[in-house]
Design a protein that fits this description.
The structure holds two protein chains of two kinds.
Chain A lengths: L19 H4 L4 H15 L2 H10 L6 H15 L4 H16 L2 E3 L5 E3 L3 H21 L6 H19 L9 H15 L4 H10 L13 H22 L2 H7 L7 H14 L10 H8 L8 H23 L14 H5 L5 H9 L6 E2 L1 H15 L5 H20 L7 E2 H6 L7 H14 L6 E2 L1 H8 L14 E2 H12 L8 H6 L2
Antiparallel strand pairs in A: 1-2, 3-4, 5-6
Chain B lengths: L3 H7 L4 H21 L4 E8 L7 H24 L3 E6 L7 H13 L7 E8 L1 H14 L9 H6 L11 E3 L19 E3 L10 H13 L17
Parallel strand pairs in B: 1-3, 2-3, 4-5
Helix pairs in contact in B: 1-2, 2-3, 2-7, 3-4
Chain lengths: 488, 228
């Protein structure tokens, strides 16, 4: 069961509910291990460059987390058809990512060695997380899990040849990569030192910026210290990461505490419901949304009280809440729109990866296959060329926030209208010429809004295109599109 | 809330001292009104015309109001007073102060006791203009506009008609205060300056109001006004 086939194991099925991999899904330790694995991934120069250029994890970490989670779950689904489809989707997604890093070295998200490294970090982090929490895996489980991860890689790549067949060789391979190939990449530094400091609140907690910022100020340095202390020593040395007294103890304590949750009754911690609840927006028609709205009102009051009770002397910091007058009218400033919607990768510039990230999010939501996916990407690519021609005044190939602010009105060109039309076509799965309730739910994850200009329960092409354009160019807030593209 | 400046001048103090002294009165009156069973209390703190005062005085007022709001927020919450700020739209209002206004309003939004409306950067005419704009924006046909419909477009449409306006320091002007809502209000003009105004003076004004004969433009003086 090493190459080619996916999950056609003869004894116990490698995928499905029994797998070791799934056993970790609801394990809180897995959250720490995932951060660690992501840092190790990002420290690989190729992957680091691809992440820095393409990933939305800085600006939209919660959406990214949810998508990753859902994708992992599909990859370990018991049904081989689901797995193959997801692998094909991931391959298409990664095939669209290539470029060169700041030092001019080319990267390609389809690079076989790099993809093997991603799987290797996930496996190694899972093993390490068990060691660090004082419940090490026995040799058999380690071997079995290694086979699972190799099959995972094979499902993506066609074969798992880049990872050694034998577990002993794997450890030599892992140490060699850590020693020789990992670098102090920008992406790794961002994850360690910037991501958690600036982590935006998930949709659920969006209404309590003060509480969120206060909690983040405490948790963020801790998470950073825990992650650094759990990295392999050779990498810490090479990347020049700080060794703080007490950090190893803190790290092991955190893993141990997370591991203790295994004594909780089964089902108390369910990663899926946690992630779903975090991305629940108050405008959604989910029955839980009412509870959430009530909770948010309480949190808003609590944070208002907190702000009012804060002594005056310390109020020099920037205010997290923008002036209410603009928000009240349902418009946002050009700068806000640029940051929340256009600059998906959070690097302060608008370039192709930002628009590709929008296309990716839309394609993921709609669960598109070829050729619809390519149509959508092509439409976005045409829009990018139009934007670049119109807005990139200094000719550096990307659009800065200032360039955008100077030319906002020219944003709604024919290519954007084309994007809206293609989006309508691919959303309208049954080709009926209107978007019905199910199709609407697939794209926006919520039913029609009450004041939507719908006729007999459907959403016509012109209304759809009009709404999309007014969101994209008129900068009007829109309850349907905001959770889709602006929420963290 | 007139007479802070004169109060200070009589004592050879800077005008700002008068504003500071006003804080005690504000809290005293809020408490007295609540105890007397008043359900709607509005304070005229700052008019749109007050921006014409010297910059230093305006700055001082902004800082003072911010301190007062923050200092008394827990008390207002505990007393079940719903606070809100009428006007407060000018960009010259410091952002921190606007945030505090928002916070206090959010914090006390669910309170069931007295509603305290602080008119800050308020102008009665501006409110009427805003209501007109809102009507036009909604595309209301001209024939459908009634007093009732119009009032629904004013800021804080739940505010009832004003029954009694107390203007301290002997000034006898409307000064652009809640023009729409004061249509049938009774007016009392005590001579006392605002920093000297106390709960007992407030009760005197309430008694004066009770003895008034409110006819709402009608002829037969049957009953005293029903504030609905």
């Amino acid at each position: 069961m090493t190459t080619g086939t996916t999950g056609t194991a003869d004894k116990v099925p490698l995928f499905g509910p029994e797998s070791q991999f799934r056993a970790f899904f609801d394990d809180p330790r897995w959250a720490l291990a995932m951060i660690r694995a992501t840092v190790l991934e990002a420290a690989h120069p190729q992957i680091g460059a691809a992440l820095a250029d393409n990933s939305t994890f800085v600006a939209h970490p919660w959406r990214r987390l949810r998508n990753t989670f859902l994708s992992m779950r599909r990859m370990f689904n018991a049904d081989p058809a689901v797995r193959e489809r997801e692998a094909a989707r991931l391959n298409r997604l990664h095939a669209r990512m290539s470029g060169s890093d700041t030092r001019g070295r080319a990267y390609d998200a389809m690079d076989r060695a790099a993809r093997a490294w991603v799987v290797a970090t996930l496996y190694e982090s899972a093993v390490t997380m068990c060691r660090l929490s004082g419940q090490p895996l026995d040799q058999d489980t380690m071997e079995r899990m290694y086979a699972e991860y190799r099959t995972f890689l094979a499902a993506l790549e066609g074969d798992a040849g880049e990872l050694p067949e034998d577990l002993n060789d794997f450890w030599r391979y892992f140490d060699r990569v850590v020693e020789d190939e990992l670098e102090n990449t920008e992406a790794a530094r961002i994850i360690l030192y910037r991501l958690f400091d600036h982590l935006p609140a998930p949709a659920l907690l969006d209404g309590a910026p003060t509480l969120w910022a206060a909690g983040r100020a405490v948790v963020s340095p801790l998470l950073g210290a825990i992650t650094v202390a759990s990295l392999p020593e050779p990498y810490r040395r090479r990347a020049g990461l700080a060794e703080m007294p007490g950090a190893p103890t803190l790290m092991q304590g955190a893993y141990l505490a997370a591991g203790l949750t295994r004594f909780l009754p089964e089902g108390w911690i369910n990663a899926e419901s946690i992630i779903e609840a975090l991305s629940l927006s108050p405008d959604s028609d989910d029955p839980r949304a009412r509870t959430v709205t009530a909770l948010r009102a309480r949190m808003k009051r609590a944070s208002a009280l907190l702000r009012l009770l804060t002594p005056l002397s310390g109020d020099t910091g920037p205010d997290p809440v923008p002036a209410s007058s603009a928000a009240a009218e349902g418009r946002r400033s050009a700068e806000e729109f640029f940051r929340q919607v256009l600059d998906q990768t959070g690097d302060g510039h608008l370039d192709w990866p930002d628009l590709a990230a929008m296309a990716r999010e839309l394609a993921t939501r709609l669960d598109l296959d070829e050729p619809e996916e390519t149509r959508l990407y092509d439409a976005f690519a045409a829009w990018w060329r139009e934007l670049q021609a119109a807005l990139d005044t200094d000719g550096d190939g990307r659009v800065s926030a200032a360039e955008y602010a100077a030319a906002v009105p020219s944003l709604a060109g024919p290519a954007l209208i084309r994007v809206a039309e293609v989006l309508f076509d691919v959303t309208d799965k049954d080709g009926s010429g209107t978007i019905n309730a199910d199709e609407h739910r697939a794209l926006f994850r919520t039913a029609f809004h009450r004041d939507l200009t719908t006729t007999d329960g459907t959403y016509g092409r012109s209304a759809f295109v009009g709404d999309f354009l007014s969101f994209m160019s008129g900068r009007r807030r829109n309850t349907a599109y905001d959770p889709l593209l602006a929420d963290a | 809330m007139d007479g802070n400046g004169r109060w200070a001048q009589r004592r050879a103090l800077p005008r700002t001292a008068g504003h500071r002294a006003a804080e005690t009165t504000v809290i005293d009156i809020i408490e007295a009104a609540r105890a007397a069973g008043v359900e709607w209390l509005s304070l005229y703190a700052f008019s749109t015309e007050n921006w014409n005062r010297p910059g230093t005085e305006v700055d001082y007022l902004m800082r003072l109001v911010r301190r007062v709001v923050r200092k008394h927020a827990p008390l207002l919450l505990a007393r079940g007073i719903r606070c809100r700020f009428l006007g407060a739209a000018d960009p010259r209002i410091p952002r921190e102060l606007a945030q505090d206004f928002d916070d206090l309003a959010t914090l006390t939004a669910d309170n069931q006791g007295m509603t305290l409306t602080v008119a800050f950067d308020h102008g009665g005419r501006r409110d009427i203009v805003e209501a007109a704009k809102s009507l036009i924006r909604n595309g209301t046909p001209a024939d459908d506009v009634t007093e009732r419909v119009f009032a629904d477009h004013l800021p804080f449409p739940d505010t009832p008609d004003v029954d009694l306006v107390i203007r301290t320091s002997g000034e006898q002007r409307i000064s652009n205060f809640m023009l729409w809502q004061v249509a049938y209000a009774e007016w009392v003009f005590p001579e006392v300056l605002w920093p000297d105004f106390r709960a007992s003076d407030f009760l005197t004004c309430l008694h004066t109001y009770q003895r008034r004969d409110r006819r709402f433009g009608g002829v037969p003086p049957q009953t005293n006004g029903d504030p609905s």
